[in-house]
Design a protein that fits this description.
- With 224 residues, the chain is mainly α.
- Helices cover 78% and strands 2% of the residues.
- It has helices at 14-43, 48-51, 57-82, 84-122, 124-159, 164-180, 187-197, 199-210; strands spanning 2-3, 222-223.
- The chain has a two-stranded antiparallel ribbon with strand order 1-2.
């Protein structure tokens, strides 16, 4: 009877997982940019109380936003795993902060996507009065997530595992997103905001997907 060496690459799916997370980051960008564009073309820029009551709101923004958040969480996990040894304690701290920050952002998006339509139907005046505060809360939680993403970009630059140009694009795009956040209070500005939001993820996603991750040398088969 023969068995695989426990250190054989066949027992580890980490390289495949990292490449998969790269693909998920690319899909994240497609979701946040393309669907926001489709929503803007179909719905224009109505007041929030009208927007959340449209038939396509949940399907064009609510559910896709939550799926995108899951893809992004898996993506930052893949980026961390790709450079875990080289990024050290700062890399670990950046990943933990980014993970919880994006989780917080996903919670805010859940409220925006599924609670706001109910409030708009039952108490439209309340949502009208609170619409600006709700948008600020959602953008604020996303801003915290971008700070975590920025820290991961700095960690990637320090670790020097992925190409430096990719790390610099990530950092520059996040800084632009943070600077633009106060303006993203209308659909048109949020379309531009989401476009910038996708630059870093699609860059890192492409690098992780195309990167050649060398598995450890094959283990020797041992007779049982």
């Amino acid at each position: 009877m023969r068995r695989k060496d426990p250190e054989s690459p066949g027992t580890s799916a980490i390289p495949r997982f990292i490449r998969l997370t790269g693909l998920l980051l690319v899909l994240f960008t497609i979701i946040v940019v393309l669907l926001r564009f489709v929503q803007f073309v179909m719905m224009g820029d109505p007041p929030l109380v009208d927007l959340v009551q449209t038939d396509g709101f949940v399907w064009l923004q609510g559910i896709p936003s939550l799926i995108a958040a899951v893809f992004f969480l898996l993506g930052i996990t893949g980026l961390y795993l790709r450079q875990a040894d080289e990024s050290g304690l700062f890399g670990l701290a950046s990943y933990i902060f980014a993970f919880f920050a994006v989780t917080l952002s996903a919670g805010a998006m859940w409220t925006y996507a599924f609670t706001a339509p109910i409030v708009a139907r039952e108490a439209p005046a309340l949502l009208t009065d609170a619409s600006h505060s709700l948008i600020v809360a959602v953008l604020g939680s996303m801003l915290i997530g971008q700070v975590g993403w920025l820290l991961m970009g700095i960690s990637a630059l320090r670790a020097n595992v992925i190409p430096k140009w990719a790390s610099l694009i990530l950092i520059a795009s996040v800084l632009l997103v943070i600077a633009m956040a106060p303006l993203a209070t209308t659909q048109l500005y949020r379309l531009a905001y989401n476009t910038l939001l996708g630059v870093g993820p699609i860059t890192i996603g492409y690098v992780l997907w195309r990167d050649k991750i060398h598995a450890p040398p094959p283990g020797k088969l041992q007779a049982a």
